[in-house]
C-alpha cells in the first residue's frame, strides 16, 4: 500500500471509476465468449478474429487485455478451471445426498449441459489436451494441474463414500478418481461425435458397477 504524497492526492473513497468497470466487463466478455468457441472447437482452429467477433471487441483493443493469444489461452484455462471447480464443489458438498449419489448428480448435470447445446460443446481442458502437440508448452502444466485438482476433489468424495459404507475400505480412491476422469473425457469426446448422451451414460454405468463395495456382514 502506497502513502499519498503532497503531489499525489489521496484516492477518493467509493466505487472505482467506471472506466475500470468497463475494462473488467470487456475482459469478462472475452473470457466468456472464448469459452463458448473453444468448447466447440480447438484452440488452433479458432482464429483470433472469430473470438473477437463473438465478443464484439475490436482487434486493436485485444492486446490491452492480453499480451498474446497464448496469454489469452492460459487465462481461459484458469477461468474454466475455476468454473468447473465450483461446479464440483456444489455437487460434492450436498449434505442431503450420499457421496456416490453426489457423483451421479454431477454426471446427470453434465449430460444435461451437453444436451442443451446439442452436444456441440465439450470440455475445454479435454479439447486442449487433444491438441497439445500444436499448443504452447506452457499449456501442458496448466492442463495437468486442472486434471489433478478434479481428481483430488473426486478422491475426497470417494473417501467420504468409504466412510459412509458405500465403498470398500480397501478401495484406492486416488486411482479410482484418476480412472474416472480419464474415462469421462473419452466419453465426452464420443458424445460430441455421436451427438448423444449414450457414451456418457455407458461410462458412468460401468464405472459405478465396477466400484469395489464393502463385503456384506
List the helices and strands and how they pair.
Layout: H1 18-38, H2 48-55, H3 59-65, H4 69-92, H5 99-116, H6 124-130, H7 138-163, H8 173-194, H9 198-210
Helix pairs in contact: 1-2, 1-4, 4-5, 4-7, 5-7, 5-9, 7-8, 8-9
Features:
67% helix, 9 helices, 217 residues, mainly alpha
Task: Provide a descriptive summary of the structure in words.
With about 220 residues, this protein is mainly α. The chain is about 65% helix and about 0% strand. It is built from 9 helices and no strands. Helix 1 crosses helix 2 and helix 1 packs across helix 4. The N and C termini lie far apart (about 65 Å).
Task: Please provide the ordered H/E string of secondary-structure elements.
Answer: HHHHHHHHH
Unreliable segments of 5+ consecutive residues: 1-12, 14-21
Structural class: mainly alpha
Radius of gyration from the alpha-carbon trace, in angstroms: 21 Å
Looking at the chains present, what oligomeric state does this protein adopt? single chain
* Counted beta strands: 0
Give the count of helical stretches.
Answer: 9
- The fraction of residues in strands falls at under 5%
How would the global form be characterised?
A: elongated
Distance separating the two termini = 63 Å
Main pleated sheet: none
How confident is the prediction overall: mean pLDDT? 88
| Helix proportion | 55-70%
Amino acid at each position: 500500500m502506497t502513502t499519498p504524497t503532497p503531489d499525489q492526492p489521496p484516492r477518493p473513497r467509493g466505487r472505482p471509476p467506471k472506466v475500470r468497470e468497463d475494462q473488467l466487463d470487456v475482459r469478462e466478455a472475452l473470457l466468456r465468449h472464448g469459452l463458448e468457441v473453444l468448447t466447440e472447437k480447438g484452440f488452433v482452429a479458432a482464429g483470433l478474429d472469430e473470438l473477437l467477433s463473438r465478443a464484439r471487441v475490436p482487434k486493436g483493443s485485444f492486446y490491452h487485455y492480453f499480451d498474446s493469444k497464448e496469454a489469452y489461452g492460459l487465462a481461459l484455462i484458469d477461468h474454466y478451471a475455476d468454473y468447473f471447480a465450483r461446479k464440483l464443489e456444489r455437487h460434492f458438498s450436498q449434505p442431503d445426498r450420499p457421496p456416490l449419489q453426489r457423483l451421479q448428480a454431477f454426471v446427470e448435470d453434465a449430460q444435461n449441459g451437453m444436451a442443451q447445446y446439442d452436444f456441440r460443446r465439450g470440455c475445454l481442458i479435454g479439447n486442449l489436451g487433444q491438441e497439445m502437440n500444436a499448443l504452447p508448452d506452457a499449456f501442458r502444466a496448466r492442463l495437468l494441474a486442472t486434471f489433478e485438482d478434479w481428481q483430488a476433489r473426486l478422491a475426497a468424495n470417494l473417501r467420504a463414500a468409504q466412510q459412509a459404507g458405500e465403498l470398500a475400505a480397501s478401495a484406492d480412491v486416488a486411482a479410482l478418481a484418476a480412472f474416472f476422469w480419464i474415462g469421462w473425457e473419452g466419453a465426452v469426446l464420443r458424445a460430441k461425435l455421436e451427438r448423444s448422451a449414450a457414451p456418457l451414460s455407458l461410462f458412468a454405468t460401468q464405472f459405478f458397477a465396477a466400484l469395489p463395495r464393502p463385503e456384506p456382514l
